[in-house]
Amino acid sequence: MGKKNSKLKQDTIDRLTTDTYFTEKEIRQWHKGFLKDCPNGLLTEQGFIKIYKQFFPQGDPSKFASLVFRVFDENNDGSIEFEEFIRALSITSRGNLDEKLNWAFRLYDVDNDGFITRDEMYNIVDAIYQMVGQQPATEDENTPQKRVDKIFDQMDKNHDDRLTLEEFRDGSKADPRIVQALSLGGD
After folding, report:
1. Mean pLDDT of 135-153
2. Spatial CA neighbour of 12 closest among 82, 103, 62, 60
3. CB 99 within 8 A of CB 173
4. Which residue did the predictor score with more confidence, 179 or 154?
5. pTM for this one?
6. What is the rounded CA–CA span in Å between residue 22 and residue 19?
7. Contact predicate 104/178, CB 8 Å
8. If exposure means fewest CB atoms within 10 Å of the residue's CB, which of 35, 49, 66, 111 is most exposed?
9. pLDDT tens profile 52-84
10. What is the DSSP letter of 116?
11. 45: Cα separation from own chain's centroid
12. What domains are defined for the chain?
């Protein structure tokens, strides 16, 4: 593949400054760093996991990183191109709360059917617990299953054992720890 995305075209930069919360200068800086880490212009899942391992040396972020990778890889081709990377980074770092919650919903909705099931929620919560490397101290959340049960008790308003985007958004706004747990909470 060679240097697939070694130089950003101006129309790409214009599109990204319109579609993201980054300036042209920031996009160029991020692109330079992206190419430094991914000379062929593609970030693989293994490379993505390696990055997460640098930030979470006490735990095992592999499962969580794979789940996040799936959301970053918008076209499902098995790699993250720079445009996918910068769009996801824009939402997770600078997006408004609804944008972050929509992104988080996509993360939790592993099978993309428009609902978060208990199993999907457990999958993410368990991955977060593995990544952090320690269990929360509170008794009612000291296992992934207890955390999932608590989340569903709070969010699943119609008690159908699955969360709609609306239930997820409303519940997350009522319990901001959902967003914070994903490091999507902003400053």
Report:
1. 80
2. 82
3. no
4. 154
5. 0.85
6. 9
7. yes
8. 111
9. 999 888 899 999 999 999 999 999 999 999 999
10. E
11. 13
12. 10-93 (1.10.238.10), 97-181 (1.10.238.10)
